[in-house]
């Protein structure tokens, strides 16, 4: 696909996503606090990793008291707040999690995992945990079923896992925020190559092929099928080194959805992408909403 043709495809398809000026996009990014300064990111990552291992691998119910606050706030739409629902999951057994990658940004820790046991189909998930006072105090997630096949041939969780270039965290965050502002919100597709590599763009979304051409083709097909995708608000951007996760809400195919998009940055450009999309119900078990 020529660069001119690609530009036309993006202008047609991404115009469906443009719904707010880039400068008006609200973003909740972590900031240092007295309880969890930025320098404790590594400790928070270790805490969350240990907690998930204890709960979902060793099925240790006592870990809920060690790692979670009594007032634990839950944004998963199917679970009430508190640790009692988690105790039920642990005691019932059958649920396991395999973490593919973990990144920490101040008081927030994000985990990209594959779960089994929530239903007949494994689920790919992006979990975000907020740590306060040395314990997990709040949780958000976005989950979707694992696809049997993907257009790119990659799975929804494979690829590089190790965080690199921690000194470039803010550069990575700025690059991805620019992509969100200019491309996803403002629909300025002519600027796509300022953010995404033209040489390599590995795609893990099951319906999108590799490269800018693969992305353009998928967006064009969605537009033709009447499945507009609109990003309406970005709630959180977490960055560590060469990985950046955005947690957003919007509309896909006429449904209110949550978006989790994980980007890998290399050489000053986005070179890889993983994601999950989940429909937002009208009511959640905790009453807190998904965001």
User: Strand pairing plus helix content: what structural class?
Assistant: alpha+beta
Q: In terms of per-residue confidence, which ranges show pLDDT below 50 for 5 or more consecutive residues?
A: 1-29, 31-38
- Described by its quaternary structure, the protein is single chain
- Silhouette: globular
Number of strands: 10
Would you mind describing this structure in some detail?
With 291 residues, the protein is α+β, with helices and mostly antiparallel strands. The chain has 6 helices and 10 strands. Strands 1-5-4-3-2 form a 5-stranded mixed β-sheet. Strands 6-10-9-8-7 form a 5-stranded mixed β-sheet, with helices on one face. A hairpin with a 2-residue loop joins strand 4 and strand 5 (135-145). Helix 1 crosses helix 6 (211-224). The protein is globular. The termini are far apart. Residues 1-29 and 31-38 have low confidence and may be disordered.
Break the fold down into its secondary structure elements and pairings.
Blueprint: H1 3-14, H2 41-57, H3 63-67, E1 68-74, H4 84-92, E2 96-105, E3 108-116, E4 123-132, E5 135-145, H5 169-185, E6 202-203, H6 211-224, E7 229-240, E8 243-252, E9 255-266, E10 269-279
Helix pairs in contact: 1-6
Task: Summarize the entry for a quick read.
This protein is α+β, with helices and mostly antiparallel strands.
Q: Which tags fit this structure?
A:
single chain, 291 residues, alpha+beta, five-stranded mixed sheet, 6 helices, 32% strand, disordered N terminus
